[in-house]
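Milestone M4 deliverable, item 7.
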Amino acid sequence: MIHAVITSYNRNFTARNDANPATHAFVASPDVVSALSFAGRLTFNPVTDELVGGDGKPFKFEDPSGHELPPRGYDPGQNTFQAPPEDRAAVQVAVSRTSDRLQLLQPFKPWDGKAPTDLPILIKVKGKCTTDHISAGGPWLKYRGHLENISQNCLIGAINIENGEANKIRNQVTGEWGSVPQTAAHYRDHGIKWVVVGDSNYGEGSSREHAALEPRFLGGLAIIVRSFARIHETNLKKQGMLALTFADSADYDKVRSDDKVDILGLESFAPGKNLTLVAKHTDGTINVSAFVLPTISIWLIHFLLIGNFPCSFIQ
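Output delivered:
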């Protein structure tokens, strides 16, 4: 049996509506969605086909009509804004420590100023990788206020080029196979920064910031891709992540999933200045030295040195 969801809401990513990756999701106008809901079948054509009413008689839908805008304008609603107190330092937000849906954010640690070397590649992503692959929706959305819990979905939908599977990667320290979040947390808890290597238009889809927050929370330093979706690239920078693109997209193929990488020039980076990526293979050879274009701005440098965008206000 094939499952399908027809929605007028512009989100039709895999498993977004019912958490079932086998469900086909389609976006249509509210008129078409309503007509198909009455018909109960995808083959129904509301322009030409008939339905049978409760009285047993066939009928056809009339052409939809309505106002483009409300004739009397929009209801302004009730103004419920409450200005924050002048002394904000005295305000404490009470969140239960046992809550699995809310968690107070803590500032990320700023960059230590040292050149990153011997960074493991957490995962080399094969093909399309949307924000839903990076931070899955569906039942995970209830954890949006709890960064530690929602980070357990980080990159679980991305395809590992090493084995063609999702959410199964090799830990370069232990050699064991595990989930992406589990492996990332192991690196982080042992003081090891890591990178992700991605394909083209990495991070396309929605603008959800958790897709940038989660890699940062789990100890990532850089996302290195052929190309970025613009909004996701911006979100990564705001969290103090290095969003880097290969100057030559063919260099993606030269990097191996079990490489250790150095990012050279970071301690003196500046707008308009390239960085160098050195990938060291497990067989001892070093035959990749690819320039990456970080599209650096003064703000990115600021976020990297401070920790992330929220920390810039705290400090």
